[in-house]
Design brief:
42% of the residues lie in helices and 15% in strands. The protein starts with 17 loop residues before the first strand and ends with a strand. The protein has three domains: 264 residues, Rossmann fold, CATH 3.40.50; 91 residues, Anticodon-binding domain of a subclass of class I aminoacyl-tRNA synthetases (Four Helix Bundle (Hemerythrin (Met), subunit A), Up-down Bundle), CATH 1.20.120.640; 50 residues, no CATH class. Strand 3, helix 1 and strand 4 form a beta-alpha-beta unit. Strands 4-3-9-10 form a four-stranded parallel beta sheet, with helices on both faces. The protein is α/β, with parallel strands linked by helices and 464 residues long.
Length: 464
């Protein structure tokens, strides 16, 4: 029988990882609050439409972080919320003449379909904002009692930014210099223009919940604080999201959470760069976005994932079809290595060379999750595999650590008939019946699209 696979078990241990903390604006050695355990919160999508490539960029990046932390021996509780109530959801539901629940459930299902196509691992938990309203009310009550929140003249409950002296420590914005009206809702009923809404007074035709301040619904910022605290605790290790969330969303999360608990909310803040089109951020508000499912019509999910990993997660990714084609070709080269060389452990002769490349791969991953550099070492490993005719298992395992090689390798299995023809050809060659061997080789190529290659290690094959 033709040998197709081998196995390799990579050693795993708690590794030293340096990550760039937006809070301190420098790389820091990652030290979790509890040894061996990581609490990881990611801001999820607002489910009123299909997810676009900007969302894909974020969730692929944080999925790789989670995979690597787990590979390095950490137990990771990874929580990613769904915002299933806000102004955009209400407006879209009215526009579609459907309930907010029907709208959000439909797009939650679509989100999971998209993430499956991109091989993003399921989170430990996906809390929905509407199921945590009681926790939000409790948090708001505590802020009012502490004098950090108040009921405005309009009936909304607002957070008083002046009551949090550290406001701006994440975004590095100075309160006096912030421009009102750009990303901050202007409301004359607020004590200060920078104050933000925690609870919105009910409006006709909108979903409402009862509260001590009358019927209404939560503001956006309070949602994540309530869900993160409830599911991960008052202090968490990592809080992550797109760089557009640094201000005001994450800044406001810090203010309200730390005023409520008196503790540091998150130790490390990680933010991914945008997907851009012609150097402009891809976003629904700018109407220059491509949905994930639109791109999936023409490109494999794994190609999209590879494309998003080619650039450091903190840098912008310039979207183009040319870039996707380059990613496809590069991924195909790696796949072909796994299809043309037996997927085995490295041979003894080349083990030290493989070990050196594996170490460099880990160094890149441990240096602020440098996926782009790590991908480069996969190609170096691929070259060594062809030279040594061994070590495919190394490439496969490291690639899968980046969430790759989950599709496009169907060729790694053969139908019984194709395998029989390969065996018959081997028998013909042993009997020195080269005419029959050539005929069988041609039959495999024409009927099954399988190309054979004779090597010192045996017969190898790939689909063409």
């Amino acid at each position: 029988m033709l040998k197709k696979e081998g196995t390799l078990t990579m050693s795993t241990s708690i590794r030293s990882i340096a990550l760039y903390n937006t809070l301190t604006r420098k790389k820091e050695t990652f030290v979790p609050r509890v040894v061996g355990q990581v609490s990881f919160y990611v801001c999820g999508v607002t489910v009123y439409d299909f997810s676009h490539l900007g969302h894909a960029r974020a969730y692929v990046a944080f999925d790789c972080m989670r995979r690597y932390l787990q590979h390095c021996g950490y137990t990771v509780r990874f929580v990613q919320n769904f915002t299933d109530i806000d102004d955009k959801i209400i407006a879209r539901a009215k526009e579609n003449n459907e309930s907010c629940d029907d709208l959000t459930l439909r797009f939650i299902d679509a989100y999971f379909q998209d993430m499956t196509a991109l091989n993003v691992l399921p989170a430990s938990l996906y809390p929905k904002a509407t199921l945590y309203v009681d926790k939000m009310i409790h948090l708001i009550e505590g802020l009012i009692q502490k004098g950090a929140a108040y009921v405005s003249d309009s009936g909304d409950v607002c957070f008083s930014v002046e009551q949090f002296p550290d406001y701006g420590k994440l975004s590095k914005k100075i309160l006096d210099e912030l421009e009102v009206g750009t990303r901050v809702e202007v409301d004359s009923s607020k004590k200060s223009p920078m104050d933000f809404v925690l609870w919105k007074k009910a409006k006709p035709g909108e979903p409402v919940w009862d509260s001590p301040w009358g019927p209404g619904r939560p503001g956006w910022h309070i949602e994540c604080s309530a869900m993160a605290i409830e599911e991960l605790g008052e202090s968490i290790d990592i809080h992550a999201g797109g760089e557009d969330l640094i201000f005001p969303h994450h800044e406001n999360e810090i203010a309200q959470s730390e005023c409520f608990t008196g503790k540091q909310f998150a130790k490390y803040w990680l933010h991914n760069g945008f997907v851009t089109i012609r150097n402009e951020k891809m976003s629904k508000s700018l109407k220059n976005f491509f949905t994930i499912r639109d791109v999936l019509k023409d490109w494999e999910g794994e190609v999209i994932r590879f494309f998003l990993l080619k650039v450091h997660y903190r840098s912008p990714v310039q979207f183009s079809y040319e870039g996707l084609e380059e990613a496809k070709q590069a991924l195909t080269r790696l796949r072909n290595t796994l299809l043309t060389v037996p997927v085995t452990a490295p041979s003894a002769e080349y083990k030290s060379e493989f070990d050196a490349l594996v170490a460099k791969f880990y160094e890149a991953m441990s240096d602020d999750f440098n996926y782009a550099e790590a991908l480069g070492f996969l190609f170096e490993i691929s070259k060594l595999i062809h030279v040594s005719q061994s070590g495919g298992a190394v490439l496969k395992e490291l690639g899968q650590l980046l969430g790759l090689f989950y599709s496009g390798l169907e060729e790694a299995s053969l139908s019984d008939e194709a395998q029989q023809l390969i065996d018959q050809r081997s028998d013909a060659k042993k009997a020195k019946d080269f005419g029959k061997a050539d005929a069988l080789r041609n039959e495999l190529l024409t009927r099954f699209g399988i190309e054979l290659k004779d090597t010192p290690q045996g017969v190898q094959w790939r689909r063409v």
